[in-house]
Amino acid sequence: MKKIITATVLFLSVLGYSQVHVGVKGGVNLNKLDGKNFDSDFELGYQLGGFAYYNFTDFLGIQGEVLFNQTNTKITDNYKDVFNDAFKKDKTLNYISVPVLLRLNSEGLITVVAGPQFSFLASGNETVLNNSKKLFKKTDFAFVAGAEVNIRPVTIFARYVWGFSDVSDFGSKANSQQIQAGLSLRLL
Predict the structure, then answer these.
(1) How far apart are CA 70 and CA 94, in angstroms?
(2) If residue 34 lies in a helix (H) or strand (E), which one and from where to where?
(3) Domain that holds residue 88
(4) Domains: count for the chain
(5) Which residues does the UniProt record annotate as the domain Outer membrane protein beta-barrel (predicted)?
(6) Is 9 domain-assigned?
């Protein structure tokens, strides 16, 4: 037990003096699936997760995140008769998203972030998961761009996420789009 405590203290000491920073974040998503079979309005969702970033210099860094993203959408009325008995019109898709972002002006007041994001379809409700597997593909690839206002240890962020992958497994092609806003707290 003493070895574990010593190793933990050493690890946290190294992190405290290095250019590696970790924290938690949360916020809201305004999202939609841009396609013929889906409602074109943005729907409200949320995101929760953690991040770690490494600064190469005060200006340049790299940030990785693991986020739980909730995406809400509605199937349009022209498919209502086909899916009326099997599926609800409102769909909630839960994704585990992993963005890898380049940070510019990493230690400044305003930081610009951009990079790819890979998401995996997941859900806690078996019925929604089974229905989602019938209608939606299991992965999504996107590009993220945004800005952060750093008031250490709190950061306010806003981003736009452009989906490149076709996420619909029925009918015509659909791409995801998200507007994200929230707060993050740097712990180390």
Answers:
(1) 5
(2) strand 20-35
(3) 19-186
(4) 1
(5) 19-168
(6) no
